[in-house]
Design goal:
Two copies of one chain form a homodimer. The first copy, chain A, has 137 residues and is of the alpha+beta class. Chain A contains three helices and five strands; from the N terminus they run H-E-E-E-H-E-E-H. Helices cover 32% and strands 22% of the residues of chain A. In chain A, strands 1-2-3-5-4 form a five-stranded antiparallel beta sheet. The model of chain A has no long low-confidence stretch (mean pLDDT 97). At the A-B interface, helix 2 and strand 4 of A face helix 2 and strand 4 of B. Strand 4 of chain A pairs antiparallel with strand 4 of chain B, so a sheet runs across the interface.
């Protein structure tokens, strides 16, 4: 896996949170929605169905871990999970905590308006809490 | 599983294609995009992380089956997979074949414009082809 490099667009839009067995966990720098992104550390990966079966299974488990962490830390009415990749080709999966009072509800977050960055201290706190929850699991 | 009933909104918007081990496969009645929806036949299911582990695994496998069927039958540049459920609470997963020339590219299909129904014969042909591919797997 030495050839893995995070896509520059993902690097620019997120904070690094943790490394799971397969995936890097990122926090989207957008305080409108608690929003994680999982990026399997597999060079050239683009579609889930092209992963080896063992990696597909790991990815499904890590999506569940990330979703459970969001639900533990944030109030939410619905989890939204998406593997899209129309703009950034590198395989990545979005896990978003949605509330009926959030600005995009009931629409999806993808393509919705403009991200509002976190204040630095807020981002650091959120990353630390996510790390604590993810490291327990 | 006797209490399972397809949500009326999903029933109205789709054609039934097949029954997999866990999920009903539906074809969205929208000729802008080849678009399948999987609905696990589990009453009250809403979030993937609340399914029993065996069902989570089955659902992940069935998502892969549906994605592979779309890729076999339709030209596509990217698969889009989403578990959203902000409007229809019944657990369902979207699998969409996207092309760079489709009307929503590179945005997502959810919330994009208005569905264009298939002509009846076209829908029947598509359902039959999907059934043939899914029954082989």
């Amino acid at each position: 896996m030495t050839d893995f490099a995070l896509h520059p667009r993902l690097a620019a839009d997120t904070f690094a949170v943790a490394e799971l067995s397969l995936s890097r966990v990122l926090l989207m720098n957008d305080n409108r929605f608690p929003w994680l992104v999982l990026v399997p550390r597999l060079p050239e990966a683009r579609e889930i169905i092209d992963l080896a079966p063992a990696n597909r299974l790991l990815l499904a488990e890590e999506i569940d871990l990330a979703a459970a962490a969001l639900r533990e830390l944030y109030p939410l009415d619905k989890l939204n999970i998406g593997a899209i990749g129309n703009i950034v080709e590198q395989l990545h999966v979005h896990i978003v905590a949605r509330q009926k009072i959030d600005p995009a509800w009931p629409g999806v977050v993808w393509g919705f308006g403009t991200a509002i960055p976190y204040a630095t201290a807020d981002a650091q706190t959120r990353v630390a809490r996510l790390q604590a929850v993810l490291s327990r699991q």
